[in-house]
């Protein structure tokens, strides 16, 4: 109809609002006006740490101090004296030599089982005469060694066997000489003559038990089979308590000890 305005159905559509896109930088690009509007990022990160845990990053000064310490230690090692190096080499050589010797000694001990001889007094008799007194002693010796023997040599007379009473020698004689094999037990006798008449008389008159000491010093060679090794010195000492010194002397107690010295 003429004279009337256009109806709502015949009106053109309204323009759409300008579209906006967010670029990769987080800004909004308006397509209509071309303006760039900054927008802050709404992302928030929350890190939870247990209360009993402490996290700490060492400061960089520690690394510098460690490098300085290692540098000083290396300098000190380079400045070591030649004497220290010589002693170090000597110690290494000594250890290298000592270990085989120790192993060889251990093997030798296991195979040979060296043991000192064991002495025991079987009989002690005294004979008195107007001129002198004579003491006859019968002893037993046992060698417990498994493979080692003892060749007891004849002495030169400067090391006699002695019988002492109250610290004074009352008789002396010559120690025996024989070969004592491994695991062997042997009997031997000695004759000791009085060194002084007064001491012998006091022993003869004594009705109580007396304490005597028998001492022997003998040269001895160690033997393993048919091989005779170096010469050593064997010292034997026996503390004896005897009563009624005479033909029927009673040995009440004794203790004998033997030592073998290079």
UniProtKB/TrEMBL annotation:
Per UniProt, subcellular location reads as: Membrane
Which portions of the sequence form the region Disordered? Answer: 1-35
Q: Is Cell wall biogenesis/degradation set as a keyword in this record?
A: no
Principal subcellular localisation of the protein: membrane
Q: Which domain of life is it from?
A: Eukaryota
Q: Where are the transmembrane segments?
A: 86-112
Cite the record's Low complexity compositional bias ranges: 1-11
**What are the protein's UniProt keywords?**
Membrane, Transmembrane, Transmembrane helix
Transmembrane keyword on record: yes
- Name recorded for this polypeptide: Late embryogenesis abundant protein LEA-2 subgroup domain-containing protein
The protein's organism comes out as Platanthera guangdongensis
